TrEMBL record:
BP-aspect Gene Ontology terms: tRNA 5'-leader removal
Assembly and oligomerization: Consists of a catalytic RNA component (M1 or rnpB) and a protein subunit.
Protein known as: Ribonuclease P protein component
Uppermost EC category: hydrolase
Function: RNaseP catalyzes the removal of the 5'-leader sequence from pre-tRNA to produce the mature 5'-terminus. It can also cleave other RNA substrates such as 4.5S RNA. The protein component plays an auxiliary but essential role in vivo by binding to the 5'-leader sequence and broadening the substrate specificity of the ribozyme.
One annotated Gene Ontology cellular component of this protein: ribonuclease P complex
Source organism of this protein record: Tractidigestivibacter scatoligenes
Record keywords, A-Z: Endonuclease, Hydrolase, Nuclease, RNA-binding, tRNA processing
NCBIfam families: rnpA
Entry-linked Pfam families: Ribonuclease_P
Length: 109
């Protein structure tokens, strides 16, 4: 799974991407440039809690992303955890993620 790492990549997704919200997670999606590999990032803001709590949230997001076969061709996606992500199963988060991806118009890969 190719991940977004650089500040420039994050800023590109934030400035050009479109945001979609759900109770279990939020996503920001942007089409990739021609020839670029699709990438994904996992974010758990500090306001959610300590490092152990945030790492659990990111593990749940990563498992949900695998279940939804992210990253999908042609799109960069950033997944943000919410306060409900921690207590949810990866399967429930994957269902919410699929619903958000459909709203975003991201085609199945």
């Amino acid at each position: 799974m190719e991940t977004i790492k650089s500040r420039a990549e994050f800023e590109r997704v934030f400035s050009r991407g479109k945001r979609y919200n759900d109770a279990l997670l939020r996503i920001r999606v942007v089409p990739t440039s021609e020839g670029d590999l699709p990438k994904v990032a996992f974010v758990a803001p500090k306001r959610l809690g300590n490092a152990v709590y945030r790492n659990r949230c990111k593990r749940v997001l990563r498992e949900a992303a695998r279940a939804c076969s992210l990253p999908r061709d042609g799109y960069d996606v950033i997944l943000f955890s919410t306060d409900k992500t921690h207590d949810s199963s990866p399967e429930r988060v994957a269902t919410s993620l699929e619903r958000l991806l459909e709203r975003a118009g991201v085609v199945c890969g």
